[in-house]
Amino acid sequence: MEEAQLRPRVSLLHIALPDVVGKPPYFGVELACSWDTENGYGIMFHGTDVVEWGAGDVPNLPWIALRHAEGRS
């Protein structure tokens, strides 16, 4: 799917900043999306690298960032 097709189907709900030290920092984004209106879509990042993606709860789970920071991803 091209960006022009995807952009109208998603919107940013919030950005989460887990209490996990990392350089670059960890952060997650939760998106509302037209294909899963109940759960949404979430992505956890370490800088610009995607650590994990899935349901809208992913950016709200600090253990994902912690596991990655400890090298257990």
Q: What distinguishing features does this structure have?
A:
73 residues; alpha+beta; four-stranded antiparallel beta sheet
Give a verbal description of the structure:
This protein is an alpha+beta fold. It has 2 helices and 4 strands, in the order αββββα. The radius of gyration is 13 Å and the shape is elongated. The mean pLDDT is about 90.
* Number of E-state strands: 4
Q: Report the principal-axis shape.
A: elongated
Note the run of SSEs as H and E.
HEEEEH
| Estimated structural class | alpha+beta
Number of helices: 2
Mean pLDDT: 92
Major sheet size, sense and barrel closure: 4 strands, antiparallel
Give a brief rundown of this model.
With 73 residues, the chain is an alpha+beta fold. The chain has two helices and four strands.
Topology:
Blueprint: H1 3-6, E1 10-16, E2 26-33, E3 41-46, E4 49-54, H2 62-69
Antiparallel strand pairs: 1-2, 2-3, 3-4
